[in-house]
Design goal:
- The chain is α/β, with parallel strands linked by helices.
- It has a domain of 169 residues: Protein-Tyrosine Phosphatase, Chain A (Alpha-Beta Complex), CATH 3.90.190.10.
- 45% of the residues lie in helices and 10% in strands.
- The chain has a 5-stranded mixed beta sheet, sandwiched between helices. It has a two-stranded antiparallel ribbon with strand order 1-7.
- Strand 2 and strand 3 form a beta hairpin.
Length: 298
């Protein structure tokens, strides 16, 4: 008698999937397509008209060509936009570099209550001594990043615009953390999504890494950027619907106001019996009577 063929053979498929914690699928960030100059082909269209006239959006990736990247450059800050730099904490302490690049604001991203926060105080003191505006974001963990994205993006945008209005030149902001490769890179990617049209979380990470090749977007930061992109899309959709509804209501009000009203002369022309011109046109020429009083017999 033939023996039965075993259904499973060790190790069968459930031997490793039954003991693994369920995790969401990984977010893969492919390398960006290159143009004829061997530069990442990523176009940025700013949403603020003040930045359109002041920033050349066509050839932003010119100073940090990927083929020329060396390991030592991770200790320096790189230009992401003409008014935005990303780098490690050491760059925020480099007085010579700060003066050379004309940095007007430093934004530090640090871990709340960690030894790193004490180390960053030196960079903040250096900025205060040089008269540079300084701003910090204290995070309890990666999950706090998504709550900080709106405030950090608004701070960068408002500072650059304020400097442009007051001095005629755009301010320059340095965003940094201890390494310049993790949380500060997430802040920069979130700003790219919020300040530019059509830049999703994938393009934002591609553009940031094209400028600073050593940045490290781990799975947690990638999912936070994906979630923040969904929030931005929903917010923009609601704003667009609100604008459309206001336009529809405005056109409806205009149509109502353009409808001619009954003139005072027409009201005064009504006869004593209450038959105006409209009533004459409607009931004139009728021979029947709508009702007749009938006397009941006694």
């Amino acid at each position: 008698m033939a023996t039965d063929v075993p259904t499973f053979s060790y190790p069968h498929r459930t031997s490793y999937s039954a003991y693994r914690v369920p995790t969401p699928p990984r977010i893969i960030v492919p390398p960006p397509a290159l143009n004829q100059d061997h530069l990442p082909d990523i176009t940025l269209n700013t949403l603020d008209s003040a930045f359109t006239t002041s920033v050349d959006q066509k050839n932003l990736i010119t100073q940090n060509v990927l083929q020329e990247w060396t390991y030592e450059r991770r200790r320096e800050a790189q230009l992401i936009l003409p008014y935005l730099f990303l780098g490690p904490m050491t760059s925020a302490k480099d007085e010579t570099w700060l003066r050379k690049e004309g940095i007007t604001c430093v934004l530090g991203v640090r871990q709340k209550g960690a030894f790193e926060s004490k180390l960053m105080n030196g960079a903040l003191r250096k900025a205060a001594e040089m008269g540079i505006e300084h701003y910090t974001v204290d995070l309890g963990g990666h999950q706090d990043l998504i709550q900080a994205f709106p405030s950090t993006s608004a701070h960068v945008q408002n500072h650059v615009k304020h400097m442009l209005e007051s001095t005629g030149q755009m301010g320059k902001v340095l965003v940094f953390c201890e390494s310049g490769n993790e949380r500060s890179a997430g802040v920069v990617a979130a700003y790219l999504m919020e300040a530019h049209e059509g830049v999703d979380y994938i393009k934002a990470m591609q553009f940031t890494q094209a400028q600073r090749f050593c940045v490290n977007f781990d799975d947690g930061v990638k999912r936070l950027l994906q979630g923040y992109w969904d929030i931005l899309c929903a917010r923009r959709q609601v704003a667009a619907q609100s604008t459309d509804s206001q336009a529809v209501n405005g056109s409806a009000n205009t149509a109502v106001q353009s409808t001619p009203k009954r003139s005072l002369q027409r009201d005064e022309d009504e006869d004593i019996d209450g038959m105006g011109g409209d009533d004459v046109e409607r009931f004139g020429g009728r021979t029947f009577v709508p009702f007749v009083d009938v006397e009941e017999p006694l």
